[in-house]
Design brief:
The protein is built from 16 helices and 13 strands. It is an alpha/beta fold and 372 residues long. It folds into two domains: 197 residues, 3-Layer(aba) Sandwich (Rossmann fold); 146 residues, Glycogen Phosphorylase B (Rossmann fold), CATH 3.40.50. Helix 1 crosses helix 16 and helix 7 packs across helix 12. The radius of gyration is 20 Å and the shape is globular. The two termini are 18 Å apart. Bound molecules: uridine-diphosphate-N-acetylglucosamine (UD1).
């Protein structure tokens, strides 16, 4: 039996690594890895693969940056070719990025069963490219691995239910739990001149926010103002860096701006932050698991479980609301204790591997029946 895992962008590596590790224990299964190259900078890709102890990808498409159609189309063309060469019994795709959708579409047309990791999340915001990627990928997947009960319910609402849906928990939290001790011991706080609970950590990268100067400028202004009273650290995604440079120097005078951080340093900085402000999806989850308050600068979230069971708060996209929420949060004593989200327990990878092994066993037995 052979499975092909397709990864392309930073969060994919974090989600898939625990599954790849657990699949090593499935007898008679060979897992191959294909990297689309959607993310190509070492800080967004290579360093994650190394720190997460993933196998070096067997195939690399090198698709790089481009429009949505260019990226998705290039992934489809490349994955179709590798599927013909490898003839896997299943394709494993995580998340909701363009690489996820492109790979799933190619596999669907080639008749290769698709396993979607982190299935069933819905923002119900069709302006988000990720929402289109999620819904379409789920619709054509054969095994839908969910990380929370709500995801299972979302799928049921769309008529997807039964044996193809498995609630396995959050593999991203497996990675976090496994590597947190190493992250804490890695000296990231010292290297960045920070003290535990003595700073606010900010990540902003969504095109809807950062590509629009009239939206980005007021947020930077308020963060800069917040930095008068507490250090504000902002690791910059390449997209955000480009937009900030276009806005001119001086826009973020008081902010402590860094390059994108490698995985271990980023989780160390989340773990010790007083507060996190983000527009990311994964950060809402990681802060919830770490018990660090998070303000999400978006109008919606596909991860409401982080609000009901975690430490996340949705503030909308009004700078004054963000400013008020941040000041309110910082005025409160820090409440120690992580959020408790069912099945976000560090064991999601083995549960996912079990579901994948069951799918493969069914497929192999039906193929051998057909051959006989
Ligand atoms: C992608 C995902 C988003 C995910 C994010 C994680 C889609 C639609 N979006 O967004 O869901 O949260 O990854 O980071 O798939 N760039 C570099 N170096 C790189 C990669 C990108 O400089 O290694 C720059 C390029 O200028 C590129 C831009 O960043 O045009 C955006 O990269 P892209 O992969 O298209 O999307 P992200 O914004 O990273």
């Amino acid at each position: 039996m052979r499975a092909l895992a397709v990864v392309g962008a930073r969060p994919n590596f974090v989600k898939v690594a625990p599954i790849l590790h657990a699949l090593e224990d499935v007898p008679g299964l060979e897992v191959r890895v294909l990297h689309t190259g959607q993310h190509y900078d070492r800080a967004l890709s290579g360093s994650f693969i190394e720190q997460l102890d993933m196998p070096h990808p067997h195939h690399h498409l090198g698709i790089g940056s481009g429009t949505h159609a260019e990226q998705t189309g290039a992934v489809m063309i490349g994955v179709e070719r590798i599927l013909a060469e490898e003839r896997p019994d299943a394709l494993i795709v995580p998340g909701d990025v363009n690489s996820t959708l492109g790979a799933a579409l190619a596999a669907s047309k080639a008749g290769v069963p698709i396993v979607h990791v982190e299935s069933g999340l819905r923002s119900r915001d069709w302006n988000m490219p990720e929402e289109i990627n999620r819904v379409v990928t789920d619709r054509i997947s054969d095994l839908l691995l969910c990380h929370c009960e709500e995801a299972v319910e979302n799928l049921a609402g769309e008529g997807i239910a039964g044996d193809s849906v498995a609630l396995v928990g959050n593999t991203m939290i497996d990675s976090l739990m496994r590597l947190l001790p190493a992250a804490r011991a890695g000296g990231a706080l010292e290297r960045h001149g920070l003290s535990r609970r003595g700073y606010v950590l900010v990540t902003l990268h969504r095109p809807a926010l950062v590509d629009e100067p009239t939206r980005l400028a007021p947020v930077i202004e308020l963060l800069d103002d917040l930095a008068r009273s507490l250090t504000v650290v902002m690791p910059l995604h390449p997209r955000t860096r480009a937009r900030l440079e276009a806005m001119g120097a001086g826009a973020a005078q008081r902010l402590t701006v860094t390059e994108p951080l490698e995985y271990l340093d980023f989780i160390a900085l989340q773990d010790a932050a007083r507060l996190v402000i983000t527009d990311s999806g994964g950060v809402q989850e990681e802060t919830s698991a770490l018990g660090v308050p998070c303000l999400t600068y978006r109008d919606n979230t596909e991860r409401p479980v982080t609000i009901t069971h975690g430490t996340n708060r949705l503030v909308g996209v009004r700078p004054d609301a963000l400013s008020a929420a941040a000041r309110e949060e910082l005025a409160r004593p820090f409440a120690e204790g992580a959020g408790q989200i069912p099945l976000w327990d560090g064991q999601a990878g083995p549960r996912a591997a079990e579901a994948i092994a069951a799918l493969l066993a069914t497929r192999v037995s039906s193929l051998s029946r057909r051959a006989a």
